[in-house]
Design brief:
- The chain has four helices and 18 strands.
- The protein is mainly beta and 220 residues long.
- The protein has one domain: Fumarylacetoacetase-like, C-terminal domain (Fumarylacetoacetate hydrolase, domain 2, Alpha-Beta Complex), CATH 3.90.850.10.
- A hairpin with a 2-residue loop joins strand 17 and strand 18.
- It binds magnesium ion.
- The site of magnesium ion has 6 residues, from loops.
Length: 220
Amino acid sequence: MVKLMFEGSDLELSPSKIVCLLRTYAAHAGELSNDLPDRPRFFLKPPSALLKNGGIVRIPEGVATLHHEVELAVVIGKGGRYIREEDSHHHIKAYTVMLDLTSRDIQNEAREKGLPWAEAKGYDTFAPIGPEAVPSGAMDPGGRRIWLKVNGEIRQEGNTDQLLFPVDMMISEISRVMTLEPDDIIMTGTPAGVGPLVDGDVVEAGIDGIAPLKITVRSK
Ligand code: MG
């Protein structure tokens, strides 16, 4: 469970799952030499990976390359299955900012060997979130600058207008496969500029209109 600021009080989230979109920004797919998906494609992160704002990300033993990915995240309010794209907006409770931390070395090995990404994406602390959840009625997620700084230096910068698929389509497509429950989180993918994090790094990440997230990286 994590707590976010929401309309002046605490929003406690206990998601049943975190669904993460991949290759939704062409510039990021290109920097990792990946083809663009034909439709929204996704994987899961366990809720045990959540880390609250201000927390410490631990680089796990055996992880050689920890990469940052800043992402716009959607918090589901009303659950559903087979949600139509035109109804998706009724199911969104709020927007927030998250990091999809990734062990790139383990992910690359998994890709080569045809293994799942659960290990590369699922370690504890690999899903920092918050501090703020902005009510869906209070912001349009389109046309927002999305950025990430490491030790004060800008590393990732993009705009949510560059998303290959609208958020409404993502929700519809995910709910065709699995029931979305209240509190579930959808991470919408990362813009270009992903790169390594090392012991002592301070990471700040934000999306215009949402309070920025800040975490510290430790190797022990
Ligand atoms: Mg990602």
